[in-house]
């Protein structure tokens, strides 16, 4: 999967950081040190790490990913990365 979307709540900018959904690349999730969770009220599972987004972005850059977009939706900050 060449695209990765990470997000965090703005009030939790020091972590945790959501790094993928249940269909994400398991090898990449392990590389990031992520664990799969099913949060109450969500019909899906998501991978997260305790690291703040800056650390996750640094790790993804080392793995060859480049930032292609960023946005905020409500209280959530979102980054989209792509690996050529």
TrEMBL record:
Gene Ontology CC entries for this record: cytoplasm; cytosol; nuclear membrane; nucleus
One GO-annotated biological process of the protein: negative regulation of biosynthetic process
Gene3D superfamilies (alphabetical): GTP cyclohydrolase I feedback regulatory protein GFRP
Pfam annotation, one family: GFRP
Subcellular location: Cytoplasm, Cytosol; Nucleus membrane
Subcellular location, principal: cytoplasm
GO molecular-function terms, A-Z: GTP cyclohydrolase binding
UniProtKB keywords: Cytoplasm, Membrane, Nucleus
Similarity section: Belongs to the GFRP family.
Stated name of the protein: GTP cyclohydrolase 1 feedback regulatory protein
Organism placement in taxonomy: Eukaryota, Metazoa, Chordata, Tunicata, Ascidiacea
């Amino acid at each position: 999967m060449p695209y990765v979307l990470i997000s965090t709540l703005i009030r939790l900018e020091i972590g945790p950081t959501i790094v993928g959904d249940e269909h994400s690349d398991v090898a990449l999730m392990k590389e990031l040190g992520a664990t799969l969770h099913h949060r109450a009220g969500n019909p899906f599972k998501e991978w997260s790490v305790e690291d703040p987004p800056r650390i996750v972005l640094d790790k993804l850059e080392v793995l060859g990913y480049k930032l292609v977009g960023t946005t905020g939706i409500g209280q959530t900050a979102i980054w989209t990365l792509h690996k050529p």
